Amino acid sequence: QVQLVESGGGLVQAGGSLRLSCAASGSIFGAYAMGWYRQAPGEQRELVAAITGSGRTNYADSVKGRFTISRDNAKKTVYLQMNSLKPEDTAVYYCAADKRYGSLTPNDYWGQGTQVTVSS
């Protein structure tokens, strides 16, 4: 079983930056696809970014050029660097993992979420 724990959320002004981290348990992290989803109050959860076991990435159009997903397999951690943050980025951000290493829509395992609030 894989456990995911997010950290790094908080309050930031528009135009600022945050880096989210997701620490994973398990011995096969490097073979898992990983990703970040977000959900604003009253809104549907959406995929923000994903990265496969081989490093292929996928981003929502709304964050392209501003967010970067990366992974450090030695640390069993996936990151989401968020730059040029906008108020509409405000949401709970969830880390996700998929046992299919090539998946760009990981959804087998979920973290508890971390709140990101961007003030205008």
Backbone structural class? mainly beta
SSE order, as H and E? EEEEEEEEEEE
Percentage of residues assigned to helices: under 10%
Query: How many DSSP E strands?
Result: 11
Rg calculated over all Cα atoms: 13 Å
| Overall outline | globular
The residue-averaged pLDDT reads 94
- Largest sheet, strands/sense/barrel: 7 strands, mixed
Proportion in β-strands: over 45%
Counted by DSSP, the helix tally is: 0
Give a brief rundown of this model.
The chain has strands spanning 4-7, 10-13, 18-24, 33-39, 46-51, 57-59, 67-72, 77-82, 91-98, 109-110, 114-119. The protein has 120 residues and is mainly β.
Written account of the structure:
The structure is a single chain. The chain has 120 residues and is mostly beta strands. It contains no helices and 11 strands. It has strands at 4-7, 10-13, 18-24, 33-39, 46-51, 57-59, 67-72, 77-82, 91-98, 109-110, 114-119. The strands form 2 sheets. Strands 2, 4, 5, 6, 9, 10 and 11 form a 7-stranded mixed β-sheet that branches. β5 (46-51) and β6 form a beta hairpin. The chain is globular. The model has no long low-confidence stretch (mean pLDDT 94).
SSE map:
Blueprint: E1 4-7, E2 10-13, E3 18-24, E4 33-39, E5 46-51, E6 57-59, E7 67-72, E8 77-82, E9 91-98, E10 109-110, E11 114-119
Keywords:
120 residues; globular; 7-stranded mixed beta sheet
